[in-house]
Structure to design on (43 residues):
């Protein structure tokens, strides 16, 4: 999963992501996606 996110981040500077003890978060122009405990939340 991490490798795929890195590739996306390299190809599109508008997509940012982070990974920490709580899970993985992805920031795009339109939404913030947080992946926690195998569940994806879109806001």
């Amino acid at each position: 999963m991490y490798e795929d996110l890195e590739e996306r981040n390299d190809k599109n500077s508008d997509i940012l992501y982070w990974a920490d003890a709580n899970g993985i978060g992805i920031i795009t122009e339109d939404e913030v996606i947080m992946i926690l405990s195998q569940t994806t939340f879109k806001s």
Remarks:
- The chain has one helix and four strands.
- Strands lie at 16-20, 23-27, 32-36, 39-42.
- The mean pLDDT is 67.
- The CA atoms of residues 32 and 43 lie 6 Å apart.
